[in-house]
């Protein structure tokens, strides 16, 4: 269905790019300073590198076994699952890392996780919440 | 094709080694949890490329199931971090 040269080229490009992105994420973990940055830095590996490896695998099966509707469904479902599931997993892990007491950069704003639930000034800086208390329309800032 | 697949396996193995070095120097639990995730996904990639290398028919099954179930390890680690609280 696909000529040999094209299959090898596509598998090579997608597979090596995906693997290199995973390696770069591992190296970037040395350069990030806190746990939240490390979780953030890992997102390209699950959101971009793993779909690329999945694409390489799908092109390989297309070249090796021919087209099949089942395999197409598995590839598409796996692609969507990687993107959605890895985002949710990264969010859950970040929340629990914050709740577990990991240090956060002090100028982080808005920081809704550190405020009481139901606070109407949640996420505002102290200056903005003071303006909101007196109904001042500060359109210059 | 063999050379390409071995290059990919080598890059992913190198990523695992770099991640494990990071675990040795990490102080907090969150970094260790995310490196565990990195090792998991790298291992899935290596398994996929080995399946391509030896002509197994499970190439897509591996990555399909692991993408569906990959969240379980992460959620378990995050529950451990918060000592069971949500």
From TrEMBL, chain A:
The entry's keywords: Membrane, Transmembrane, Transmembrane helix
Residue stretches spanning the membrane: 6-29, 41-60, 72-93
Pfam family name, one: PhaG_MnhG_YufB
Keyword Membrane attributed: yes
InterPro entries tied to this protein: PhaG_MnhG_YufB
UniProt-recorded name of the protein: Cation:proton antiporter
């Amino acid at each position: 269905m696909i000529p040999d040269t094209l299959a090898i080229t596509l598998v090579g490009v997608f597979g090596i790019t995906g693997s290199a992105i995973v390696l770069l994420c591992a190296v970037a973990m040395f350069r990030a300073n806190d746990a939240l940055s490390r979780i953030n830095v890992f997102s390209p590996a699950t959101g971009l590198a793993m779909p690329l490896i999945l694409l390489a695998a799908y092109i390989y099966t297309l070249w090796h076994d021919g087209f099949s509707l089942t395999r197409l469904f598995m590839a598409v479902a796996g692609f969507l699952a990687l993107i959605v599931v890895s985002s949710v997993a990264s969010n859950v892990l970040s929340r629990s890392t914050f709740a577990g007491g990991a240090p956060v950069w002090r100028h982080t704003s808005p920081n809704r996780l550190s405020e009481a639930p139901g606070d109407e000034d949640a996420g505002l800086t102290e200056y903005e919440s003071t303006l909101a208390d007196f109904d001042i329309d500060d359109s210059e800032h | 094709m063999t050379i390409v697949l071995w290059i990919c396996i080598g890059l992913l193995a190198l990523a695992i080694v770099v991640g494990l070095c990071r675990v040795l120097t990490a102080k907090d639990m969150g970094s260790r949890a995310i490196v565990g995730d990195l090792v998991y996904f790298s291992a899935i990639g290596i398994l996929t490329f080995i399946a391509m290398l030896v002509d197994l028919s499970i190439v897509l099954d591996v990555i399909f199931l692991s993408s569906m179930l990959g969240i379980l390890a992460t959620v378990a680690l995050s529950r451990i971090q918060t000592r069971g609280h949500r």
